[in-house]
Amino acid sequence: MIGRIKGTLEHIKATEVLIDVNGIGYEIQMPMTSIYQLPEIGESVTVYTHLIVREDLHLLCGFIDENEKTMFKELIKTNGVGAKMALTILSTMSASDFLKAVNNSDINSLTKIPKIGKKTAERLLIEIRDRFKNISIESNNHTPSNFKEDAVNGLVALGYNNKEAKNMIDNVQNEDLNTEELIKEALKNVF
């Protein structure tokens, strides 16, 4: 099993990154919440990974912190939740927010995740609640300035240069947004 990769961030394309480790390039699928936190291209990065091996697929999934990796591993054990669905869930909300939604039986938050309707959200709650009883995930204590910095890094990961990304985030009027919300608002203002 490949549990962690440390190397140079070479490329970011949507939800996939390429990390060079001594001349070997690892293609790693990542949720957007992790991609937002990546350093700039060419910098050193450490990613916690989980390798999925099937007859027709070898998929390396990566996460910036071990909380997301833990949540991902629990999610893929759930009936009807594969790796792609688990990555979508963790792209939409942080591991701590997802755990809070499950613990509070917050169906509305779960239905905001793409491809999860009310019935699927209810089924997920029933199947996941007991499995997540003993999991405790610390939420990141981000300050608004951390959110802005992470949002700038997220836009850079999406292909904007650092100056453009900083200007886009500075143009967002609402100061009370988290990283994901800042990026969404910044992108809305562009289009």
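The above is record 1. Record 2 follows with the same two-line structure.
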Amino acid sequence: MASSVRVTRTSDIDEQAALLRGWGQTYDQMSTGSFSGSLLEADIDQVRLFREITSNSLHQIGCLPAGTIAVGVPLTLHGNATFCLQPCDGLQLHVFSGNDAFEFLSPCGLDIVGFVLSENALESAFVLDEFETVMPSLAMPHLRQVNRLETDHMRRVFEDVCEVVSQCPDFIRNPVRFSSMSRDVIAAVAAALVQPGDDRADMPAAKRARTVRDARELVMNSPDGYMSVADLCHTLRVSRRALQYAFQEALGVGPSTYLRAIRMNGARRAIKNVRSVADAATLWGFWHFGRFASNYKAMFGELPSETFRRYHGPSR
């Protein structure tokens, strides 16, 4: 488990290529001028997160070990760029892993974040037959068209993880908070890799309504009032997209939005009885306390610290 973010800087492209351990990379510089690069890494349980910044255009070739999944999401990608001989503009997901080498012509000023995890870790976040459906599509490195919301979410999760582990390196001593972070990172990768589908025809209207009722009952009757979308899908034996359509039709919001609201309300109630705002947030799976406070205020019109003071007096 990581207790800090590690940053390595170099002015040599061969040293830069070797920073991602196990990738077997070679870099050839394609643009003129002196090179500078850096790699930021953080290990979160079964996932390694990285951020690579390179100053010059590079021709990158590499191959990952079998059983490893690696995906990247550009933060900055401008200029001529191709991935596995396909033009890329920063909107696609880069799948680096597979049974063959990847080839990446990266532009000057590339800034990309990535997630590396085992197939076993990823399998835990899939529902029903998603793993069997997704894994064959990851057999070769490729550019993957995905929902913009999913890639934005991956970028946000990456930034939040790096902020937490750099500012609070001892957070891993809190197993509940650490577990929530690990689960959310893996879930973000899994959700992005699942290709969109249309399951409305497979679920009659009556079943959609029943699915929402059953889902709400599961949430309300769970020990801490919280279940993930994957938990609901596993228990109700429905696909991710079918659950999405059912919630959208019945409540006008997706299951993730609904569950987030339930968790936020649970944290608000917990604040009345716990020793600190942090305890309430952790109890309900919120591991980035700054983002929790911001979202809490947006939802309830006051900071969680203000709610706490109303019931407990000055913050302790």
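The longest strand covers residues 68-76.
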